[in-house]
Each structure stands twice: as C-alpha cells, then as structure tokens.
C-alpha cells in the first residue's frame, strides 16, 4: 500500500466502500423490509437533530402566529362588522349545515370505532421527492406499531409501515412507485391495484377493459391486499385512457394531500377494524 | 477536529433538509441539502474526505428519507464524492462557476445513480422529467454556491490557511 499513489489508494478505497454498500443494499432488498443495525444506529444517532427541527419549527411558528395575530387584529374588527351584516344571509345555508353536520357525525362515529384500535402519530420527516414517497412518524414498537400495519389520515389511506424502531417508524406512502393498495371503484365495484407512478400521481392498474370506470369515480381500498381494511378512500379517477390490451389505463388523484400531512393514524388492529367496518350497523367507510 | 466539523456539516444539512420537508414540503423536490457536505469536501478539501462525507451523508439520507433499500444514497454519494473530488483535485473548481456546476452535477448524478441502482435491484422507478430535473439541478447548484459563500464568510481566513487541497 505504501508504494501506491494517492489516486490509486482512493480508487481502491472507493471500490471497497461501494462493495460494502452494495452488500448492505442487497441484504436489505433480500430481507424484504427488514432493518439493519447500521440503519437503526444512524436513525437513533441523528434523531436529536430531527427533534431540534421540530422544536425550532414549533418556536418559529409560535412567534410568527403571534405576530400575525397582532397584525390582523385591527382588520379583523372591520371584517367582523361586515360579517355581522351578512349573518342574515347565512340563514339560508342552514340546510347545508345540517347535511354537513350529518357527515361530521358519521366521521365522529368512525373515529370512536377506530380510536381504540389505532395509534395517533405525528409526521417528523417526509420525503416526497425523487423516486421515494415516504414519511417518518414518532410512534414505534413501544406503541404497538409494527411493519405492514396500514396508516390512514382523515382524508383516507396513507401508506404502510415498512420499518419500526422503538420510537419511530417509516411509512411507505401509497403513491410511492414501490407502494400501492388493492383498490375498488365505489360506483361500479371494478377492482384493481392502485400503484404509485413516482410523480405523486397514482394509477389504477389491472382493471379489465370491459369495466365501467369514468373520471370522477371514487376509489376506495378493497381490503384484498391484506393490509388496508376495506372502505378507506384512496382517491378520485381523473382520467381514463385508451385500453392497453386487456386493461384500462386509469389515473387516480390521491385523496390525501401527502405534502400537508401532519398527523396520521396507525391501525394497530386492522382485522378488528375491517370487521367493524363491514358490520352493516357501522357507519359508511371514511 | 476535522471529524467534528464533518459531523456538524452533515447534522446541519439534515436539519435543513428535515426543516424544508416540514415547512415547505413542495420545495423538498428541488432541494438535496445532504449534497452540500459532499460538494464542500470535494471542491475545497480532498477526494478522500469527499468520499467519506458522501458515504456518511448518504447513509443518513437513506435512514431518514429512503423507503426502499438502505444504502442507495450512501453508494451514490460516495461515488459522486470520489468523482467530483477527483475533478476538484485536477482543476481549481472552488469558485462560483465551479461550485454552481459542481452542485448541479452532483444533484443530477445522484438522481441518475439512484434510478440506475433501483432498476438494477428490480425496483419500480418513476418517470424522469428533464425540465424539473434541470430546474432542481440549477437550484441545488445555487444553494451550493450560497453555502460556500456563507462558509467563506465565517471561516474565510481559517480555510485559506488550512484548506490546502490534497488528492
């Protein structure tokens, strides 16, 4: 080694480092979702940095919110007076409010149904760029979170837990190119697989060309993937392209705004939830 | 001391990347802060330190922001650290155009190596959008130049004394 030039030493070092990392990658791929000691170590060692981001973020947001409140206090007075005058017009909207009330009541019932079998979690990090769509949540095995559990938000299905540490878990979003969920068109009951396309949008694949699917149709989880219980909203059909052989080409816009996700629910007992949701006396799916 | 600075640099980049993800999620598509240590060590320090910085920054990125195979970005950033560090050893790239092009190339290279590895591992990859990639590459190039400007302002004299390049 002593006789080698620095360039050659670096080249040898590079080969060794790349080889070691290829072993690391292949081990993880082969392990299908398992975790390595190195990954756990890196996550634990760097988690204080992420904690600092949240703390600083909370502080900055708090100060900004107070400044905003002070600045808007004066204009708010004027707006309130105008609002008072327009309250008479509000009377006509009572019917709509009653309908909304009914919808919220159903949501509340669903929440009561899910709450004992789910764990609320906060999103601490997210990656919605490149080839990956994933989030990191602040709940782990200590809270009953384990790999392959479904994660939902009040908008609908979010993703699947792929890694769980004691206090953290990684969730692969359904819009990830390697993620997805078994889907069902709510109106026509056509079934397929919802797959991420890598650009944030999703596709409903493997739907036979004779099935009736039109833009605007709502797609929900069918429960046939063994991960998500049936009935959680995935998104809405935005385009139905020309048939490709035996299948339709269907684009789906996700129901959940993944970029704005802050809180999610991990369904720690999906089977019980699936049973509860399939009960005819239970409210409609979320 | 050098190790401490490297750890701080990677920690700072992680802090920035997580902050971007938390406060401006849309911007995360165009920013890869964990490339900054690689660019800095490749252009201002040595090829070897760029490789180590790339390896560490990449593994941190894999741990926090990668849902697939752990090690993809570690591999990619090690390779890019070696490549840019090698170029930095042959040519003086530690000036505005060099930093801009270096940062942009690192971003594009990282994306291509990531996609290549995923294809090699038979994982699904999304489409590559040339316009978005170009815009993001320019943004990252500019961010790298900004990081260099800030570091030069803070440690200007020190880095002139101790920052002599090695191969």
Q: Care to describe what's here?
A:
The complex is a heterodimer of chains A (286) and B (167). In chain A, strand 4 (156-164) and strand 5 form a beta hairpin. Chain A has a six-stranded antiparallel barrel. Chain A has a six-stranded antiparallel barrel with strand order 6-7-8-11-10-9. Chain A has four helices and twelve strands, in the order αααββββββββββββα. Helix content of chain A is 38%, strand content 27%. With 286 residues, chain A is of the alpha+beta class. Chain A has helices spanning 6-30, 37-90, 94-114, 270-278, and strands at residues 118-127, 134-137, 150-153, 156-164, 169-173, 180-185, 191-196, 202-205, 218-221, 233-244, 247-254, 263-267. Chain A has a domain at 180-256: Beta Barrel (Thrombin, subunit H), CATH 2.40.10. Chain A is globular. With 167 residues, chain B is mainly α. Chain B has one domain (2-162): Arp2/3 complex 21 kDa subunit ARPC3 (Orthogonal Bundle), CATH 1.10.1760. Helices cover 76% and strands 0% of the residues of chain B. In chain B, helix 3 (47-65) runs antiparallel to helix 4, helix 4 packs antiparallel against helix 5 and helix 5 (96-120) packs across helix 6. Chain B starts with a helix and ends in a 5-residue tail after the last helix. Chains A and B meet through helix 1, helix 2, strand 1 and strand 5 of A and helix 1, helix 3, helix 4 and helix 5 of B.
């Amino acid at each position: 080694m002593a006789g080698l030039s620095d360039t050659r030493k670096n080249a040898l070092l590079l080969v060794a480092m790349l080889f070691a990392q290829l072993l690391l990658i292949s081990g993880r791929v082969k392990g299908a979702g398992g975790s390595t000691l190195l990954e756990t170590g890196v996550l634990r060692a760097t988690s204080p940095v992420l904690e600092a981001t949240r703390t600083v973020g909370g502080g900055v947001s708090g100060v900004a919110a107070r400044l905003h409140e002070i600045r808007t206090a004066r204009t708010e007075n004027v707006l309130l007076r105008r609002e008072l005058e327009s309250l008479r017009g509000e009377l006509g909207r009572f019917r709509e409010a009653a309908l909304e009330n009914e919808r919220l009541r159903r949501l509340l019932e669903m929440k009561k149904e899910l709450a004992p079998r789910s764990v609320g979690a906060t999103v601490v990090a997210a990656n919605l760029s490149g080839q990956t769509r994933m989030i990191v949540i602040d709940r782990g095995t200590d809270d009953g979170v384990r790999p392959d559990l479904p994660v939902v938000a009040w908008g609908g299905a979010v993703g699947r837990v792929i890694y769980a540490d004691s206090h953290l878990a990684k969730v692969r979003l359904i819009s990830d190119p390697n993620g997805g969920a078994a889907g069902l068109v709510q109106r026509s009951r056509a079934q397929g697989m919802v797959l991420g396309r890598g650009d944030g949008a999703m596709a409903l694949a493997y739907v036979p060309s004779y099935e009736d699917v039109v833009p605007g149709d709502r797609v929900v989880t069918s429960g046939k993937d063994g991960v998500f219980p049936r009935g959680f909203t995935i998104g809405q059909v935005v385009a139905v392209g020309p048939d490709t052989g035996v299948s339709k080409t269907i684009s789906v816009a996700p129901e959940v705004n993944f970029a704005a996700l802050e809180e999610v629910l991990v369904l720690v007992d999906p089977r019980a939830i699936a049973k509860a949701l399939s009960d005819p006396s239970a409210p409609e799916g979320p | 001391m050098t190790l401490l600075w490297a750890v701080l640099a990677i920690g700072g980049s992680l802090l920035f990347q997580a902050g971007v993800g938390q406060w401006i999620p849309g911007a995360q598509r165009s920013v890869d802060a964990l490339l900054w240590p690689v660019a800095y060590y490749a252009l201002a320090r040595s090829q070897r330190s760029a490789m180590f910085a790339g390896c560490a920054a990449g593994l941190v990125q894999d741990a926090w922001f990668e849902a697939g195979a752990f090690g993809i970005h570690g591999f990619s950033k090690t390779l890019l650290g070696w490549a840019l560090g090698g170029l930095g050893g042959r040519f003086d790239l530690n000036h505005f155009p060099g930093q801009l092009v270096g940062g942009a190339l690192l971003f594009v290279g990282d994306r291509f190596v990531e996609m290549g590895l995923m294809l090699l591992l038979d994982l699904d990859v999304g489409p590559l959008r040339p316009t978005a990639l170009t815009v993001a590459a320019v943004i990252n190039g500019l961010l790298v130049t900004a990081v260099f400007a800030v570091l030069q302002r803070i440690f200007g004299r020190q880095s002139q004394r101790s920052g002599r390049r090695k191969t």
